[in-house]
Amino acid sequence: MEGTHTMPDPAAPPTPPVPLTALLAREDLALRQIAGPPAGGVVVHWVHTSEMADPYPYLLGGELLLTAGVHIPEAAGPGAAYFDDYVSRIVAAGGAALGFGLAPVHDTVPEALVAACASRGLPLLEVPPRTTFSGVARAVWQLMARARLAELRRVTEAQQSLAAAASRPDPVPSVLRQLAQRLGGWAVLYGPEGAEIAGAGRRPGEEARAALTRLTEVVRPVRSTPRASAAPETTGARPTGPAAPARPDRPTPPASATPRTGAVGARPTGPTASAQPDRPTPPTSATPSPGPTSPAGTTAQPAEPADPAQHRPTPPASAAPHPDPTSPAGTTEGQPAAPADPAQPDRPTARAGAAPRTGAVGAWPAGSGAVRSGVSPRPDAGPDRSAPASVTDPDRPAPSSATDSVAGLHLAAYSLGAGHGFVLGVATPQRAPGDHTVASVAAVLLSLLTGEQQSGTGAARSSALVRLLLGAPPEEVASLLGDGPWIVVHARPDGDGAPDPVAASALGAALGSALVDPAGEVVRVLVPADRAPAAPLPGWTLGVSAAVAPYDWPAADTQAARALARARATRAPLLGHAARPALADLVPPGEAAAHARTLLAPVTAHPALTETLRTWLSLHGGWDRTAVALSVHRNTVRQRIARCATLLETDLDDPDVRMELWFALRQL
What we know:
alpha+beta, Udp-n-acetylmuramoylalanyl-d-glutamate--2,6- Diaminopimelate Ligase, Chain: A, domain 1, six-stranded antiparallel beta sheet, five-stranded mixed beta sheet, 19 helices, 13% strand
């Protein structure tokens, strides 16, 4: 199995590549290929003009290098080694092609240059006198813009079709079918235990399915009990192409070099460049070999982005991430690519002849053999950190996605965001720009579809609701919702207006509970006692009950309502029910309730009077605060209290009377 690559979300996608064939097809340019391999497999990422004898330090990789031959010395004859050295340096830098402009310096392309490009495998284009170099550059940018627009249209159409599939009666199979159709491959949903739940599209062979199953372990969240295959392994890196030329001013990456961050443009695999005898090369043995028990057969060490603006040695390219041609416009896997500045040609960057660089768009070379997600292992690294971060270090989150290639298929795994261990797997015969974005959209939809209901939480709540509707007491269904005591929270949004369902759901999420009732102007939330709010929530006024057992939920609901009323009256953002022993607790409950019913009988027939009296007494006879708590005018409060005094035939200014009435109201 070839290298596995984790894919953090890129910060900004680079421009898409341009096939060299598309550039040759432009009649207005009249370009003609006169040497080198067929243009069918060559892509261009940049256009750069240089008359330097050694363009190597000024190239990022993937360029169409344009020259008029000003740099060619007069002494360079047909058999001079100058042309071979010049072409070898372009190949070593990862140049995509060389364009030679006719006139005013040369009337024809030098035969030695044609021979050198043919031997080195570098496409050589003849630029006619009527075609300017700026015209070639403009044509490349136009083709890039068209490719980007086509990709955006494809992604938009896929998003719409996936969203429509998610709304069908069988959403999960429909989304998988639509994804398989859009990518032209196989899409499968894996459960938390690694079993295939549903699949769609052309089913691959056993080898590819087994490799995809192993790939899911790279992105699946770590469990409390590590799997047997979770032991750390050593870094593996398979050669991707011929070795690059060595240089004395910087270490040369090993032959197994993989792409690295810092250059925008994928470097196609090229022939072996001539080594420089006076320039040391780091030993390739510095790269550890792969371990046999890795979940994906490879490592999961992140890569450090290289800075092309710094004249300093670059870490071995075998420790760098690979570009993702399936990301939007060919975005980068591993670390986001730092945009290169073509206006500053004096920034040298270490080269790895056959290794493409991060930030490029196009197919990455197969067999690159390294897993990357953020920090590159160096030859002098200490302890081995080759296994996926989610396996070796539970404190580090698993990557959201990973890719691999096996049996001629491109594999990708996406962790679904619900956090319950579901993984989306994709196997396609080829990767195209935008595939990563399309698959990511499907992963988001499947996360929503497999979140609560499939995890068991939603099913448990549904079961509890059915039992309650069928007459089961709360204490019998409470175990389905969780263990331990509960609290009831009453919440009211600041300002006027009733809370909308979205705001109510957000409140429940902030409190850590999905048991939310957005009834009227007050939102009621049933919350486990260990998640009781310790601090106010911005935009809300909260009243919190005491922690109670399920059979006391109705009493807790009353406590929360009273706490909310007091919180609004005192303009406190959070107020809890104060439960402490009192003198009233010394009276037997039955006798206390009987006395309360007798004493308050004249007003209990009028609920508004009872609630007004309760609130007024709790706020120490404050007219304005009572009016705020009840959302009525203060004159209404005065009228109601006067009516209570008349019905009860008592003086409410007497503190003893107030105490007795408060005692009685607490029993109702």
